[in-house]
Amino acid sequence: MTVSHRVDIQRVAAEAASGVPGVAALQPALADRLALAASRAHQALTAGAAPHPEAAGIRCEHTPSDRWFVEVRCILHADQRVVDVARQVRDDVRNAVLAYLSQQCPSDRVTVVVTVTRTL
């Protein structure tokens, strides 16, 4: 799988997760925050470089067994039942990624893990 597939899957997963009622935001991991900070510093030094796409809250890997592993880290609204929103995020992200992959490589399988980092 190419890097562009990974970026597309991150985008598809982020759109699906963000669209679930009760999701306040996606929570970037520490590595994402550090990469974004380093990217911004590099852009400031090189002025005019293309921005680094931020994949906040989504991490994905393609395993040797043709499986995609997608982790979604999200912040939820406090007035929602966490387990229900997390299940909906998992289902919506899985369906969106499978729909994307069906156009690219239909044999792939998807595992989605949702981590709720906090509520607002």
TrEMBL record:
It comes from the Bacteria. This is Asp23/Gls24 family envelope stress response protein.
